[in-house]
Design brief:
The structure is a single chain. The chain is built from six helices and 14 strands. The chain is an alpha+beta fold. It has one domain (2-169): Beta Barrel (M1 Pyruvate Kinase, Domain 3), CATH 2.40.33. The strands form three sheets. It has a nine-stranded mixed β-sheet with strand order 1-14-10-11-12-8-9-2-5, with no helix packed on it. Strands 7-6-13 form a three-stranded antiparallel β-sheet, with no helix packed on it.
Length: 220
C-alpha cells in the first residue's frame, strides 16, 4: 500500500461564530515541510484537549474523496467543502477506511506513525458546515477519517510518500471497526477481540471491554 500526501494543514484556535465556541477545526494549507512531534504538527492547536489532540490523536488524516459525498448530501455546502474543511492535518486520495487497519504503522515523509482510532464526529462539524446533524451523517456513513500516534518524529510535507511498514491487525480495517463498535448490540466477543488489537488507543480498548461486560451481563 502506497499513497502520497496531497496537502498538509495546521491552524490556531479560533472562535466559531455565532456561538462563540473555541475550536481548532479551522486549518490552512502549509507550503514546505512541517515538523511532526508526539503531540502534533508544529503550529497546530486544539481547543478542547479532553477530546482532541494528545499522543493518540497527534495527526488527523481525512480522505479528500469523502467531500464529494458531503457535497452530494448537502448541495448548499458544495462551494465550501473540500480538503481542510473538517480540520484534518493531512489530505490524500486513494486511501479510505476500507484500506487502513487499526495498528497500521506507516512512514509519512520522515515520520513513522501508527493508526490509533477513527475520528469520533462531534457537533463542531455541524457548526463548521452550518448543517444540523452533519456529524451524525458523517458517523452513519463511516466517513470519519482517522488519527495517528507518532512513533518517530520528523518532517512531512505535501508530496511526501505514504508507505505501509507494519500491519498487526489485517482483519480490523477502520470500516470493520466502526461497523462493530457502532452496532446497537455488537457481539461481546468481537468487542473483546477489538480491545486486544495492538495499537488501538488505550481509552478505546477500555471502553469496549466495559461495553462487552455490560452486554454479557444484560444478555437476553
Amino acid at each position: 500500500m502506497k499513497s502520497t500526501v496531497d496537502q498538509v494543514f495546521v491552524g490556531r484556535v479560533r472562535l466559531m461564530l455565532p456561538e462563540g465556541e473555541a475550536s481548532g477545526i479551522f486549518k490552512s494549507a502549509v507550503d514546505g515541510p512541517v515538523q511532526l512531534g508526539t503531540t502534533g504538527l508544529a503550529g497546530d492547536e486544539q481547543a478542547d484537549l479532553r477530546h482532541h489532540g494528545g499522543p493518540d490523536k497527534a495527526l488527523h488524516h481525512y480522505p479528500a474523496e469523502h467531500y464529494a459525498l458531503l457535497a452530494e448530501e448537502w448541495p448548499q455546502c458544495a462551494p465550501i467543502v473540500g480538503p481542510g474543511v473538517l480540520g484534518e492535518n493531512i489530505s490524500t486520495r486513494g486511501l479510505s477506511e476500507h484500506d487502513i487497519c487499526i495498528g497500521d504503522v506507516l512512514r509519512i515523509g520522515e515520520a513513522h506513525v501508527q493508526v490509533s482510532q477513527p475520528r469520533s464526529p462531534c457537533w463542531k462539524i455541524d457548526l463548521r458546515l452550518k448543517v444540523k446533524d452533519a456529524s451524525r451523517f458523517v458517523e452513519a456513513a463511516g466517513v470519519t477519517g482517522w488519527y495517528y500516534r507518532v512513533l518517530r518524529e520528523g518532517c512531512l510535507c505535501a508530496g511526501d510518500g505514504i508507505e505501509l511498514l507494519e500491519r498487526p491487525n489485517p482483519w480490523l480495517t477502520l470500516a470493520e471497526y466502526w461497523d462493530t463498535v457502532t452496532a446497537h448490540r455488537p457481539d461481546p466477543a468481537a468487542l473483546r477481540r477489538i480491545a486486544a488489537a495492538p495499537g488501538l488507543a488505550a481509552d478505546k480498548a477500555g471502553r469496549w471491554l466495559e461495553r462487552a461486560a455490560w452486554l454479557e451481563a444484560n444478555a437476553g
